[in-house]
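Hi P.,

Sorry for the delay on this. The queue was packed all week, but I finally got your sequence through. Input first:
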Amino acid sequence: MVSRAYTVAFQGVEARMVEVQCAVTAGLPAFSIVGLPDKAVSEARDRVRTALTSMAIALPSKRITVNLSPADLPKEGSHFDLPIALSLLAALDILPDDVVQTVVALGELSLDGTLVPVVGALPAAMAAAEQDRSLLCPAGSGAEAAWVGKTQVIAAPTLGDVVRHYTGQAPLPPAEPGEVSAPPQGRDMRDVKGQERAKRALEIAAAGRHHLMFVGTPGSGKSMLAARLPSILPPLTPAEALDTSMIHSLAGLLDEGGISRARPFREPHHTASMAAIIGGGRQARPGEVSLAHNGVLFMDEFPEFPRMVLETLRQPIETGEVMIARANAHVKYPCKFMLVAAANPCKCGYLSDPARACARVPQCGEDYMGRISGPLMDRFDLRVDVPPVAFTDLDLPGSGDSSADVAARVAAARATQAARFKDHAEMRVNADAEGDMLEQIATPDAEARALLTKVAERFHLSARGYHRVIRVARTIADLDGAQSVRKPHIAEAVSFRLVNPGAG
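Then the structure:
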């Protein structure tokens, strides 16, 4: 007789169903696992054997064969321990086979039978719901998996608890969804002295999820401004939280007993590799662009990143997803993020200061910013020069609105956009609008169109640049509560586009 249990194998954010078949037959005593397992899966036999021994369950002196079907799908990770143990217990008639077949299980076994949390509980719960099965996982993964309300999640501390639950001796209660409360935000927009134009750009970028670039001398406050962006962003909606947490679950970042409604804020160092930023490696793991999905990717010292890494950003920025192609897998991850870049104007950083700039001005600035290609620069909706702040200004009291005031305006603008795109599942903010939808929601009036046409001709705006100006103008109009895009909205959007007129 062959007993069956079910688990999942991960391909990107997709969890593919795997049938774990176990047969106990006559022959020389052996315990073998087949079906394209990696080293971690092959080692499961020793963990399972020892965990069962700790529960006083002796394996029979027979041949035990475990097959992971489909056999041509690579199986990676330690989460196969629990389903292998379940199928074996069913084959030994310790657990009822028909009950085990109604469960999707994942979890790593300790030698004493304790269940260790594993990555991917959230995508596994989604797959279980689609198959109309319940999910069995370690206790540490239960709060995360229970966010999928369409399936029952049983979170067990040990393998012994699993046996007692499915034999009716001590049923376990279903797991409850857990939410990690974000720590209070200590950084406030009022901490930034001056820089009103840069603060305005942050507000517009946050309201419409527009890409933003700061250029300024060292110490002018670029990183300080970017660090305050999370304080004005609205929390993730339940759908966005589930979408984002699927990726974080696969990356092993949900280790606090639930998922968070705070938007991701990722800030990789400029020495990060291509695989770290875009994703990849042996198991095609998500990179920083995907971990920033529905949040912010802040890249400080932008021109210092390797040229190949910067150029690879162009396609994810445009499409909102990234395809990682490997010899053994093609994996797609979502990556609708807001890119915030910061750069010095030149290598020494003081291009605009005659007293401190090097002797190679302006050539040094052209060489340094030339590391960012024109097509990549064209994808930034807002470009802001951040002037240096005099030390005498640092003693002045805080100016401008607080983060709470700005966040309220951003939330109102986002609510307007949510209502606008409620019938379009693929669009959530103005940055997503394109084609006919962009024409419907952001057609400028006659006066505004005349100004935009004049600017496009004078500064040779590309078609992409033209449409990005219209999207930013639509967001500015939303912040103003205006129904249509008017001349002042276009004028402000253009002013952020043409900091460096030669870039188009």
